[in-house]
């Protein structure tokens, strides 16, 4: 017999599926900022934040919402192979597949983009851009200079702020949007909404405010860490539900289980 | 879950460790609460104990009056000491003027002492205090209101306190809001130099000069490149 907690566990599998998008105060505000930036005459927009703050899913959401109004393309996994990257870009800009056994001539592509100026605007959402080489970023910058292709670049916030500072100071036409970890309120809303979306009302009600505060302390509001913690909590609950149901309180999630999950994930050390 | 038993053992250890710390803390607090207010002056302590004992010798009506004044005594003393302490702190200015160079002045702004809980805004009274909490308050306010003055204030103040990492961070925040404000760039550059990143600082300053052709920036660059020390 399937435990009720197995469905709850599956809710928190880490993914950037657009169906899993949850509207929160901070993400709504950042989304609107992104939308407005796209409409400004900027060549490039920088979206940065720590891993697990929701950059990828936000870009997905942007593409999903605007795909019928604008020419907008989402490039997820960065390719280290320059040839593959420009093939994808070629297809996005020209709307044609590159013939087999051919490669993109960069200067011809630039000329093509210049001719498009004023007629079309193509928006490319580049995720995980910290993985692109310096040379590729330079070429991306040259393409953006044609003003017919706009890039929204998402990358991890680095400890060395100089990277961002240098880029920011070098070109004043960047817009920089930072995604931070969730507030306590957003964190709680995120968990509740995720569970309610799958009709897991009882389980959602069994998580009290104090428990939310404790989980927030462990994860510091990071969505990825939250998913990991919740998955582990429900994994433990599933085990107890099947093997030792006396250790489960269906009306209130036991603090013991939250702490056990935190121990397993290394948030607590003994 | 194959490791549930191991997890349970770990949890028991964790509980024991957690409670042990609380027991020790509770004992310490109790000790401090009873003995520290009377400090080295055992006479005051024994006087206090005697006075408490003497309450029982009075009638009920008298007892109440005497009880109130007794209780007030030590607290009044403490309040007076607190007043002196606050007054002493307020006489020491947070920031010495001028901070960085002749051209930069710190604004001695006086903010309304008011909290508007309905709007969720916090307006602070940060006239002069050496409390670290004041910085945190300004930082909190910045994240709500995104006022460039707050970011600049923090950048300058941290620079003055020789916390160059934070000074650079807040200078960058100010610059993100308005990249026409030279002050933020100068503080950032000077902080980087203090952090031993002279080459990077010079590179950033040169880039800024290319875009702005600023005379002050050029002067600063000249100073950096030619002086051995002392910004």
| β-strand amount of chain B | under 5%
* Coarse shape of chain B: elongated
Order of helices and strands of chain A: HHEHEHHEHEHEHHHHH
Work out the largest interface and the residue count of each chain.
A-B, 20 and 26 residues
Radius of gyration of chain B: 28 Å
Shape of chain A: elongated
Biggest β-sheet: strands ordered side by side in the sheet of chain B: 1-2
Strand elements of chain B, count: 2
Q: What is the H/E order of chain B?
A: HHHEEHHHHHH
What is the number of helical segments of chain B per DSSP (H or I, 4+ residues)? 9
Number of strands of chain A: 5
- State the secondary-structure class of chain A: alpha/beta
Uncertain residue ranges of chain B: 55-121, 124-128
Kindly report the average pLDDT value of chain B: 69
Distance between the termini of chain B: 61 Å
User: What is the CA-CA span between the terminal residues of chain A?
Assistant: 35 Å
What labels describe this entry?
A: about 270 residues; 5-stranded parallel β-sheet; 5 strands; B: about 230 residues; mainly alpha
Care to describe what's here?
The complex is a heterodimer of chains A (270) and B (231). Chain A has 270 residues and is α/β, with parallel strands linked by helices. Chain A has 12 helices and 5 strands. In chain A, α6 links the parallel β3 (122-126) and β4. In chain A, α1 (4-11) packs antiparallel against α11 and α11 (223-243) crosses α12 (255-265). The longest helix of chain A has 21 residues, at 223-243. The two termini of chain A are 35 Å apart. A two-stranded antiparallel ribbon of chain B has the order 1-2. The radius of gyration of chain B is 28 Å and the shape is elongated. In chain B, a hairpin with a 4-residue loop joins β1 and β2 (121-123). Chain B is an all-alpha fold.
